[in-house]
Amino acid sequence: MNSKPLPTLQELAGQNLLRNEALAIIALESLPKLLLPQLFKQAYDGNHVKVLRTLVSSWPFPRLPLGALKKRTPYLEAQLQVVLEEIDKLLIREVHPREFKLQVLDLRSVGQHYLDVWPGSMDDWLPKTTQVDPCCSKIVMTYPLKVAVDLHLKGRGQSRLFSYLVQWAERRKGLLQLYCNELQVWAPSHQNYRRLSQMVNLEYVKTLGLHSSCSPAFLLNLAPHLGRMTNLRKLALSNIREENFISPEKRRRIVTRFTLQILKLESLQKLHLEAVCFLEGHMDQLLGSVKTSLDDLAVTHCNLSVSEWSHLPEFPCVSQLRQLNLGNVRLAGLSPEPLRVLLVKAGPTLVALDLEDCHLEDSQLYAILPALSRCSHLTKFSFYGNQISMPAMKDLLYHTTSLIYLRLELYPVPQDSYDYHGIPHLQRMQQHCDELMKLLKTIREPGRVFFGTDRCDQCCNRYIYGKTIMCNCRRPY
């Protein structure tokens, strides 16, 4: 059965009109403005170049969400080039068509919709430079034209879009300005840094991701540019490691220069640290440099020292967390007290807690249960991959009585369900999970609840009771 929705009357009319491009171009003069966004989409999808050029040259709206269309067709390069060329022609004209009102060319592909042609909340991060024509009290084109884009820079190469935009901005200096909302970087070259700093308004970057670098010295090159991102909301570091030995003194110098710039980030709300082994041993320095109250902290796939773990709840930035993720931070052997204090601090605001694959044991669970039960706004709790017995699991469920907003609960299969070799015994697991589910239903109305095994040592898969198939690595009973 074909589930594709039937075209609307407006779409059918657009298809019919575009069958004759010459007629369509003439008809554009009399078409109501509100029909133009849909016609633009159809001309873009169908690669109707002449109609596309005409639409761009007299675009009557303050915003063109081109990024919503970029990935829709195989004609990406040609169509994008057509639109950018037409806008470039308009930039160098001394006199523009009266209908042309473009202020923002939005090239972001995420969170966009091709019919969103008016400025709104998605543009509130851009500077306001709206001008009004005193003769007609209507919005008119302003200079420089704002070009909004998300950039992904990988290695020494540069994306074709980034190269084109930088060259365009250099060629039309004063007529257009680049604004980057999200910047994701994989070990960039010095040239990328230089061009970024010269041609992009870094103070408007909201999300910055730094990934997969085996030469942490690049943090030194980034540091002065990071300090300019004064409106940064989210900073994510992942897989930052050292391929060659770096002396403790050099490591300390790199971390210090980097964290000094974090002190300038007065709008930071989210901090994600994943597999940042280069920063291990310096987590105190990093978190201590965050002067804002974070609402989202993720420290995952990291090894924390006793000192780092003990100091974690002491930082002001963790006192009002809404999301806390400590996934794959091995806590076995560490004191549960820092986690207890952290839950007490963040309890009134916390809505999502991820303690997956932390290898917590019964004694540690019992230490945090009273604090966990007071996280009254919790909606998601992920607890897979912890070594908890059946009696302790029952106590955990009893302590969730007051957590009435829980909608997603991910619990470990009790350790009593495994044999001496760590292989799940299917019959025992079924008995235990059914008993726990029945208990939970007597306590409160549960949301989505799942029970999962430890990850397989060979394939790393996790069996979810009643939902997935046991991997072939583990012998069935």
UniProtKB/TrEMBL annotation:
Which keywords does the record carry?
Leucine-rich repeat, Repeat
GO MF annotations, alphabetized: ubiquitin-like ligase-substrate adaptor activity
Give the family this protein belongs to, as stated in its UniProt record. Answer: Belongs to the PRAME family.
Question: How is this protein annotated for GO cellular component?
Answer: Cul2-RING ubiquitin ligase complex; cytoplasm
Q: Which organism is it from?
A: Rattus norvegicus (Rat)
Q: Name one GO biological process term.
A: negative regulation of cell differentiation
Domain of life of the native organism = Eukaryota
Question: Which protein is depicted?
Answer: PRAME family member 20
